Amino acid sequence: MTKSLYAIGGGQMVEAIIRASLKNQATSPETTHVVDISPDRVRYLADTYHISTSREFQTQALKDSDLILLGVRPQDDWAGISKQIGASGQKKTIISIVAGVTIEQLTDAIGDEDYPVVRIIPNTLTDTGFGVSGVALNASARQEDVDEFLKSFGKVDYIPEKQIDIYTGYAIAGPNYIYNFYLALTNAGVLGGLSRKQANEIALENLQGAAKMLEITGKHPYELLDINNSAGGVGIAAQHELDASDFAAGVQNAVLAAIKRTTELGKES
Ligand SMILES: NC(=O)c1ccc[n+]([C@@H]2O[C@H](COP(=O)([O-])OP(=O)(O)OC[C@H]3O[C@@H](n4cnc5c(N)ncnc54)[C@H](OP(=O)(O)O)[C@@H]3O)[C@@H](O)[C@H]2O)c1
Q1: pLDDT in tens, 138-170
Q2: Which part of the chain is the Pyrroline-5-carboxylate reductase catalytic N-terminal domain (predicted)?
Q3: Which of 6, 86, 98, 253 is the least crowded, having the fewest Cβ atoms under 10 Å away?
Q4: With bands split at pLDDT 50, 70 and 90, how would you rate the model's confidence at 124?
Q5: Is 266's pLDDT higher than 80?
Q6: Which residue has the CA at smallest separation from atom 35 of ligand 1?
Q7: Annotation-wise, does 12 bind a ligand?
Q8: Residue intervals in the chain for CATH 1.10.3730.10
């Protein structure tokens, strides 16, 4: 069933969520309202998605909504907005994508510790059908109220709130690690003598195929490598170089740095 949505902060992430949820008919243009302080942004969103928009809080649109999507940045006035929501007397589930801001900080700002709040770290591959959002609910929020909407822009993993930072650094920043690997691999192909086009096409094919192999066989990567790396062959020669390099530690350190930075940003907000 389509949900009516009241979104505050119509930036890049909210737009990606709205685009996917409209496409998958979890929401409809007639029942979607976005508030953004930028006049250019509200004009663009209204023209592109045929939704209603405003530059200021709209109590009636909030009353008409099933869900509130809080999509401003941690440095914006999320506390003031939350206070306005609390003062409106409406008790509509808030889905917050504000990085680093906890459920407790939000209910404190709303002024009601029993207000239903869902904190998510949204999947950013919204247009692909891939990607997972990490979702934490407080005791007042109900999974069945948000599940269909959340699944309209990716897969959903319900997690304890304490895992949100890990989720951000590992899952949400995840495509960045893949883009970097793809870039390193395609440059290797060009270095070896292939054209950029050939290198790109082959790497993309292998990335997708290898992901599919992991998925359909359910095998551990060591088992798949064992099949590919025959005695004294090409695969094991490459494997030796990778094992001798800081490839694995480099990826792991990058993920740990992303998790640490997420926690630092949360403390600053
Ligand atoms: N982008 C991502 O990939 C991603 C991924 C995961 C989570 N997030 C989280 O999603 C949130 C939004 O990120 P974003 O990248 O979409 O940021 P963004 O593009 O900068 O969007 C934020 C929007 O909110 C508007 N805004 C600021 N204060 C407002 C207020 N008081 N009332 C209404 N609108 C207001 C901003 O307008 P002005 O620009 O005019 O100030 C801007 O249009 C952040 O908390 C971020 O941590 C983003």
Answers
A1: 999 999 999 999 999 999 999 999 999 999 999
A2: 8-100
A3: 253
A4: confident
A5: no
A6: 9
A7: yes
A8: 174-265
